[in-house]
């Protein structure tokens, strides 16, 4: 066993010794100013039921981003934001980055068996369309792209 000891000046007492495994053996006399309490870190405990977040799946996000791309190309929309909360997911659309969202596309799974889990909500908070299928709900926004040519 390899051991090294450091001694304090004057009293000749052993401060600590280092052994092979990198452990630090502190003297147990307590009159040492260099002694410290070494405690192992607490074990990592994951939550038994982590809080789940509602999110858009790949197909839903594809439909929403397809509409977003067409509206950006038409010059109607400029920015978006995503929020994934415990009870709903929100895709917010902005005309300018420093504004309130002009539209919010929400997914609320709790309303699946009632009015439908998808909704398009306007800037003033009114529900423009609610339904069980996302493509049907998004049609209310696609109507803005179809304008008469003057």
UniProtKB/TrEMBL annotation:
Taxonomic superkingdom: Bacteria
Pfam family, one: DUF2794
Name this polypeptide is given: DUF2794 domain-containing protein
Organism whose genome encodes this protein: Albidovulum aquaemixtae
């Amino acid at each position: 066993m390899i051991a090294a000891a450091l001694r304090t000046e004057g009293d000749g007492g052993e401060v600590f010794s280092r052994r092979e495994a990198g452990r630090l053996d502190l003297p147990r006399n307590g009159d040492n100013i260099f002694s410290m309490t070494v405690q192992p870190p607490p074990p990592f405990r994951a939550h038994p039921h982590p809080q789940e977040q509602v999110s858009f799946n790949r197909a839903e996000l594809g439909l929403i981003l397809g509409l977003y791309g067409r509206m950006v190309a038409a010059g109607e929309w400029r920015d978006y934001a995503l929020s994934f909360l415990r009870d709903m997911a929100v895709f917010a659309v902005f005309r300018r980055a420093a504004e309130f969202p002009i539209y919010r596309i929400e997914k609320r799974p709790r309303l699946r068996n009632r009015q439908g889990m998808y909704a398009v909500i306007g800037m003033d908070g009114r529900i423009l369309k609610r339904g069980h299928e996302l493509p049907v709900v998004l049609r209310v926004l696609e109507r803005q792209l179809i304008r008469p040519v003057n």
